[in-house]
Amino acid sequence: MGSQLSLRPVVAGDQAFLRELVASTRPDLSILDRAIGEMLVRMQYDAQVSDYRRRFPGMEESIVLVDGVTAGRLYVARSRAEIRLVDISLLPAYRGCSIGGQLLARLQDESAGAGLPLRLHVLQGNPAEELYRRLGFRPGEEEGMYLAMEWHPTLPKE
Question: Which fold has domain 5-151?
């Protein structure tokens, strides 16, 4: 895809878009009454962001732009020990277009430059797990419904 990919910080005016993004990852809510579905999406979004901010203080919250159009979000936490991909989500129209791979490649370059591991958790069964494996992430421990994965610049690809 020859699109221009960029990031910008999340601002207060992004909340409606971010809730829409969460809703796009929850097609099961479409069977509910619209008002109830919107309430559940708002609750899920608020709880998710609150949890991320509690667990990863100072997390960088970015909006993914494709040719200037809001396409997703990228949340990254950095410490002296690691770079942590907290969340990457794209609207359905932008999934499967190599955007996620490009964002991950940027993080891998940063990881290599810093000499730090790049870590993430993925919901087991999520199609993104295959992308992570193709990019050289190695599976770690299963943590409930999630699988820990890590990429390190010193590890050869399998």
Answer: Aminopeptidase (3.40.630)
